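Onboarding guide, step 5: your first structure request.
Type a short instruction followed by the sequence, for example:

Predict the 3D structure of this protein.
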Amino acid sequence: MKAGRRDNMTIEKILNGESKIVEFKEMLPQKSIKYMKTVVAFANGNGGRLIFGVKDDNHEVVGISNDTIFQTMDDIINAISDSCEPMIIPDINIQEIEGKIIIIVEIISGKQRPYYIKSMGISKGTYIRSGGTTRLAEPYMIQELILEGTNGSFDQLIAEQQTVTEEEIEKLCSEMTDYARKMCRGDAERDKVRKLTPNQLISWGLLIERNGELLPSNGFCLLSGKGIPFIQANIQCAVFKGSNRAIFVDRKNYGGSIQSQIDEAYNFVLRMIRMGAKIEGLYRQDVYEFPIGTVREMICNAVCHRSYLEPANVQIALYDDRLEVTSPGMLLSGVSIEKMKEGYSKIRNRGISSAFAYMKIIESWGSGIPRMIQQCKDYGLEEPELIDFDGDFRINLYRKEEILNEMIPVQGKKVPEQVEKVPDIQYVNKQHKRIIEFIEANGQITSGQVEILLKVKERRARTILGDMVKAGFIKKQGAAKRTTYLLAGENFER
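The system replies with C-alpha cells like these:
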C-alpha cells in the first residue's frame, strides 16, 4: 500500500462520477460481499477503481477517519485475498482531497478468468460490469470468460455430435478458394491465391485430428453452413419507421454459411438505403448515402468478432436517422472503444478470422475501425458511434440529408431497374450503378467480383461488363485472365 500525492487531473476523473471502471463507497461496509462483487467484476473486465470515502449519490467527499485509515486498508486487502478465486491482488493507496482522506483500491484486469466469490461458487459468484453497475454473469458469459482465461477460442473447439466427410471438407476448401479468387482486384492478385487444403484448415483449428480421424470444429460448421445445434448464428436485418423499433417496414433473416450471410446482409442494406446524385457538367453519378466500404466493414466485423456462445443473432437495423449494427458479445479484456479507434484489435474467433483473411473478407488486424472513421470523415458524415452495452457491441452510422443533392427513395421498395435519363447519357440500371460504385471504392473490378456483387453466373457477368464498355461507362484493361475494368474518361470521377 502507498500514499499518493494530490493530482488534480486524477481528482477530476475520480469525482466525475461512477462509470464502468469507477465505483464509490461512503465507508467500508460491515459485510465485504457488498463490494466484493464489484472487485471480481472489475477483474473480469478491464479493471477499475473502488473509492472509499465518497458518497455515490452526490459525489460528496466525506473521507475516512485518520484513526482508522490503515486498519481499513488492511481489512480491504484481507477481505479481497480471502474472498476471491483466483486470488486478486489490489493496488491500494490513499489520497487527500479537500483536507479529507480517501482510499483508492485499484483492480487490474485479470488473466486467469473467470474470477468469482469463493463462498458462492463459479456459477453464482461470477460478476461482470455493465455500464456503471455490477451484475451476475449469465452462463454463456462464464463460458466466454473460461475460454478467455485458458486462451481458448470457441470456433476452434470440436463441434459436439458433429462429423465431417471428405466430400464436405473438399467442398468447403473449393468454395473458400473460389470466394478468395473472386474477391481479388485483378488477375495478378488472383493468381497468387493458393488452393485451400485440409491441412490449412487443420492449422487454423477448423479441423481437429483425433485418433486418426478428422473432426469439424464449431468454426468449420459456421463456414460450411452445417450449423451448430442451439447456437444462434444468423443475421437479422430490418427497416423501421422512425428512430425506434416500434414499427417494422421490412425484415429479413439470413442463414447458411456466415460468409454468404455477409453478402446477403450487405445487399439488403444497399437495397434499403437511399441513393442520390452528384452532377458534374452534363453527367450524373448516382451514389449511396453511406460509404459502402464502411457498411460492409461493419457487417464483416460483427460476424467475425461476435460471441457465438451468446444466444443472439447479429442484428442490422435501418432507422430514419441511422444504420445500426449490433454484434453479440462483450468486449474482450484489454479492449476498449478508445483503443479500437486507435487500431487496437484482439481476436475472439481465431479460426474464423484466419479464414476471413484468406477469403479477403477482412484485411489487416485492427485497421477496420480507423478506416471506417476516415471513410465517414471523407464522406462528410459524423464519426461512427461505438457503443459497449449490456454485453453487446454496437456501431451506429448516422444519416445526413445534405450528403445527397438528389434523392431516390428506395427504402422498403424494390430498386427501379432504370432511372431518370440525363442528357447525352444512356440509361443506367441498378446493376450498372453497383458496378460503378464498386470501382469507385476499389479502383477496378473483375468479372469474378461482378459475379459475387450481382449474384450472377460468369457468362452473365461478362455480358454486363461488355454492355458497359460499349456504353462508354467503363473501359477494359488487360486480356484473358488478367482483364480488369476501370471507369472510362471523366464521366464518373471520384
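Each response can be followed by summary notes, for example: The CA atoms of residues 180 and 358 lie 7 Å apart.
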